[in-house]
Structures are given as structure tokens and as C-alpha cells.
Amino acid sequence: MTFITRFAPSPTGYLHSGHALSAITAHDAARAAGGTFLLRIEDIDHTRCRPAFVDAISEDLAALGLTWDGPVWRQSMRGAFYATALDDIRNKGLAYPCFCNRRQVAAHSPGQGADGLIYGGTCRDLSRDEVAARVAAGQVPAWRLRLDTALQLAGAIVWQDRRAGWQDWAGDGVGDVVIARRDIATSYHLAVVVDDAAQGVTQIIRGMDLFHQTAVHVLLQRILDLPTPHYLHHQLLSDADGRKLSKSAGARSLRDIFAEGTDGRLVAERLRKVIAGAT
Ligand code: GLU
Fold first, then answer.
1. Which residue of 94, 118, 138, 269 could cross-link 113, Cys pair, CB 3.0 to 4.6 Å?
2. What is the pLDDT of residue 279?
3. Range(s) for CATH 3.40.50.620 in the chain?
């Protein structure tokens, strides 16, 4: 069986041990299966990504002793493919332009969902004339998925996680998600689905922090006629207080750990013990 997996970091900071755990899990699974391990740089968000972080990703992964196959894809080079996918979704009547700013979204949101605030639907039923007038006035819209119609077309969203088992999603908890932000003309959801299919990824191995995003990805795969890969969401590393490791919570970067003299391969071996204990 073909086995193609990937590590797909966003270069918004230096990698920390949580990223390393994810990369090692995917890398080792690919090597054990005689498969392919890809590295993809998810740098669509030019407001947060930095070139120095891009270079550091390959350096840090190499220091951990990981190797990857084929060229490294950069999402910032693939805008045309995301635009085509967005057109396809729009042509199927499954997306609508949204002119709301954050404050307006927050004011009408029914609450927090898996993907941020659930959208209250303010722009769902704007007339063509109203959209045209706002665009003519220089407003650039984001594009939101018309979730109920998309679900009607796609049918039940049933997917399997290798750890958590079968999941059955009826569309709750996210609302009409943004599939193209106004500033970058795409979104994490759209770009990841398009690229996983374009790279022939058969196994998505990533952290539990993205578990609740997967139903939206499976829905996008259905409406774009793309295959659904196998999924494994692994447990997350936590700090001494039990909180998920993250840059915002002050996790030490791999760079800092290496700079203190700890060998990258030793870091990788320690993480492999954590992975073995968690399965
Ligand atoms: N780029 C995403 C992140 O850094 C991960 C994407 C994925 O694995 O699907 O959180």
C-alpha cells in the first residue's frame, strides 16, 4: 500500500518539542512502512511567517536526525491552486462573501466553536447588488463556506481517526467557516486540503490540537471531489503544569535546547520514548 505522510509546520516561530514529536511520529511511521515523508512549509499567512523561521525548520529537523523526501513545498507559491479550488466551491453555490470585521463577527456570534467564534450569518443573504456595491466601494470580502448546503451535498461526514475511532459529524460546532481570508485569499482549511490531495498524501499524522478541524477538511474533500486520507491525531506534549506546549505558553524552542549543548538525536530519542509510552 502506498504510504505518503507529511509534516506541515507554519513558520511563525521556532519549532519546539511538540513540533518535534509530531515530525518524528510521522517520519518514523513513513520509514517503518517503506513510505514517503514530505516536508511542507505552510506559509500562507504573510502577516505571521518569517523567512528565518523557514530556514530554521529544515535545520532543526536535520539536527533531530530526520530526513524527508522530494522537494519541500511552500504554500506561498501555490496561491493559484487555492484560487481554483475556491472558484470551484463558489461555482457550486457553496460559499458567500463576508464583509464583517472581527468586531462585527463577535457582536453577532452565538458562541465559541472549534475554529474560533461561530459566525452569526450576517452576510449570508446579501443581494448581488449589495455585494457589487461594497466591492465597488473598495471593500474586499472574505469567503465563507455555506455549511448547511455543503453538508446537504456531501452527505454525512464520517471519518476515522486511528486512535479515537470513527467520527460522525453533523456540522455542529463550527458554523460557516472562512475558507478564504480577505488578506491572503485562502485559509488553512482550503490550502491544507488542496495540498494534501496534490501531494498524494495517504496518511495525515498530526497533533490532537487539529482533531476538531478534520471534519471540515473531510467536508471540503467531498465537495472538491478529493480523496480522504487516513488520519491519526497523536497526543500532545504538555509542560510540567499539564498545559499543551506552545510558543505562546513559553515552550522552549529546539534551538534553545540544542544551544545548551543537548544533541538533537538525543532529543529525538527521548521523544521516541514518549511516543512509545503514549501508544
Ligand atoms: N500548519 C499547521 C500547523 O502548523 C499544521 C497543518 C496540518 O498538519 O494539517 O499547525
1. 118
2. 62
3. 4-76+237-278
